[in-house]
Design brief:
heterodimer, A: about 250 residues, alpha/beta, Rossmann fold, 6 helices, 15 strands, B: about 325 residues, about 30% helix, about 30% strand
Chain lengths: ~250, ~325
Amino acid sequence: MKILVCISHVPDTTSKINFTDGDTKFDTNGVQFVINPNDEFGLTRAMWFKEKQGASVAVVNVGGAETEPTLRKALAIGADNAIRVNTEAIDSFAVAKQLSKVVNDGGYDLVIAGRESIDYNGGMVPGMLAAMLDANYVTNCIGLEVDGTSAKAVREIDGGKETVSTSLPLVIGGQKGLVEESDLRIPNMRGIMMARKKPLTVLEPTDANAETKAVSFVKPAPKGAVKLVDADNIDELVNLLHNEAKVI
Amino acid sequence: MSIIVYTESEKGKLKKTALEVVSYAKAIADQMGTSVTAVAINADNTESLGNYGASKVLSIKNDTLNTFNAKSYAAALAQAVKQEEAKVVVVSSSADSKYLAPLLAVGLDAGYASNVVEAPSSVAPFTVKRSAFTNKAFANIEITTDVKVVGLSNNSFGLVETGGSASVEDFSPAIPESGVSVESVDKATDKVSIADAEIVVSGGRGLKGPENWGMIEELAEVLGAATACSKPVSDLGWRPHSEHVGQTGKPVASNLYIAIGISGAIQHLAGINSSKVKVVINTDPEAPFFKAADYGVVGDAFEVVPKLIEKLKTFKVQNA
């Protein structure tokens, strides 16, 4: 089985979010970038397939050279090789278009992406990619087994979960549950050393138009201070929720 | 030329989010000088959508669509869009709508904006505001394609009754082979789901153990709320993973979020920040949640929550 794991290069959760160029660009100044958490669960599940069932695992990112340390980290965790499509990720459609070319050229059977990235939160790339490839697609995926060309996946739904049967080629939108957080791997020194020697291929982009563009970014208005209610005066809390906040 | 809106239902009953997306679609229709056509799949009483601004309902009744399937549902919607020559399609932010929308968008060569929080600031160019950076910012996005798909963030627009009426037409789209089939569904049917809830009551490690969740459930019941929990609580196995809210869990966009015994780690706050009103109950006045909350009570949950339940019961009797 040939597995491709899509890796988004995202600001760490604790990052300060600021914008530059007249609020049109994310300010990367002083920001620590990491593998998108939802992708990391998928990568770890891919490693399980590699070790238990025999599979090759490639990782891919669509972005500039600045994303390579994130791809190297994925190699240090255990992926066999990395691919970077050398173009700016303008919108989900354009990224999915680039990825569809990588998947078609590489003949991958299983593509695992995160259900969404924690920066733009679009939640679109895996679905758009599946539609472009005419592959099967399961998102919000919290469990995945593959046997030959058939697959069983568990999808988190509103208020519960469902189990589905499907087949390869398959695109997964993964999240926590694909593996548990305790199964995530921190790259060790040997992994980091080996990652330096693993191939990282830079591909030039195919023609892909964007369908949306970010006109500007805005930060939410600063929040007022919390209104404290005395623990002995819970009537006041009920009153505030009813008359002021109007939520009960 | 009308606007197509996908109205979700569960076991035939239209969901509240369906009424919200119709209200929202009506606002866009007014801006564009057109009307709203709702598409409902195996739903009853669809004429009621008229009251929220739909002038027509395309009602699909098809047994092969009894369980949700993203590809089949997207194909059905795409055919409705083509029949109506719609330029804008509105869906909700439910797990199912977010699943089908990218498939629908590619099928229609349409640009798609998800997690949209307001009516478009302009319809030519078509510009919408969506939340990004896990609720730490908003992006104004222009959709540049001829057909546009808009995913509305739950509880961000609200319901707007128009007193109008809708005509219901049968619609029978062709349903393609889907490739994904549901084998089993595991869902608590008697409980409000986090995604659908207007109020969410959430417990953290401060509650000391799973045996203490009785009061959380009682508070949720009094409020008609869904129950949720912090990540450590689901990691410890005190509550099921499906209740975990936060960055790697479920997002929450309720009108009221009550956090009990939750300190407010940044990953937790990221997931619940689009809730409108946040209340925190915690013994530690230095807990980061107090900085994110609108109302706070510094106190022991084991004393405060029973009192709150009692006061809310009295409030409900008085306001019944």
